[in-house]
Design goal:
Strand order of the largest sheet: 1-2-6-3-5-4
Shape: elongated
Number of strands: 7
Order of helices and strands: HEEEEEEHEHHH
Helix content: 10-25%
Largest sheet: 6 strands, mixed, barrel
Radius of gyration: 17 Å
C-alpha cells in the first residue's frame, strides 16, 4: 500500500528483456455506504489497467465491478455506493468473484477513479498521474520469471520483484491463515 512505481521506473521495467507489458495496480482501503443499509461496509477500491484474471477490462470512470461478497452487505448491481470519508459515488456495473483484498469487498475501478478515492481517503498517500503502487509484469513468450525478476531489480535498483504466489503470501494474515 505504501509502494510507489513512478513512470520512469515503469519505463525501465518495460525495457528489460523478457517483459512483454506492464499493468498498473493500486489499492485504497475505505468504508462504503450501501443504499438502504445502516452499517458501513469495509471495501477495497482497486485501480487497475489491463488484463486481470477474473475481472473484465476497467469500467468507465465512476463505476466499479464489485466482488460478490459485497452482496452480503446489501450491494446490488446498479446500486450507487459511496466510498471513503467524502462519499465518492461508484455505480456497480457488474459482479466479479473471489477478488477481495484483506477480506474487504473488492471494488474494481479504472485508475483515475482509484486515484480520486485514494487522495480523498488518505491525502498523505495520494499519487500523481501515471503513478501506481505496483505494476504487474507480463512475460514475453519463453521468458523465465526468475530471470526477468532479477533483471528488473538490477535495472531499477529500487524494486523488489516477486511472483503472484509470493505477493499473495505477503498480504498481512494470509500466510498465517494458510498454515492452519
Amino acid at each position: 500500500l505504501r509502494s510507489r512505481i513512478e513512470p520512469a521506473t515503469r519505463a525501465t521495467i518495460e525495457e528489460v528483456d523478457g517483459v512483454a507489458a506492464t499493468y498498473g495496480f493500486g489499492v485504497a482501503l475505505v468504508g462504503a455506504e450501501i443504499p438502504g443499509e445502516s452499517e458501513i461496509a469495509d471495501a477495497a477500491v482497486l485501480g487497475y489497467e489491463g488484463n486481470v484474471d477474473g475481472v473484465p477490462a476497467p469500467p468507465a470512470p465512476g463505476t466499479a465491478w464489485a466482488d460478490r461478497s459485497l452482496e452480503a452487505a446489501g450491494v446490488e448491481e446498479g446500486d450507487t455506493i459511496r466510498v471513503g470519508p467524502t462519499r465518492i459515488p461508484l455505480e456497480v456495473v457488474g459482479w466479479v468473484e473471489d477478488t477481495n483484498y484483506l477480506q474487504q469487498g473488492g471494488l474494481w475501478v479504472e485508475p483515475g477513479t482509484w486515484r480520486e478515492v485514494l487522495a480523498e481517503s488518505r491525502p498523505g498517500a495520494a499519487v500523481g498521474d501515471d503513478v501506481f503502487q505496483n505494476v504487474w509484469v507480463e512475460l514475453a513468450d519463453g521468458a523465465k520469471a526468475d530471470t526477468v525478476a532479477a533483471a528488473i531489480d538490477d535495472a531499477t535498483g529500487t524494486t523488489e520483484t516477486i511472483t503472484r504466489d509470493e505477493a499473495v503470501l505477503a498480504l498481512p494474515g494470509i500466510k498465517e491463515q494458510n498454515s492452519i
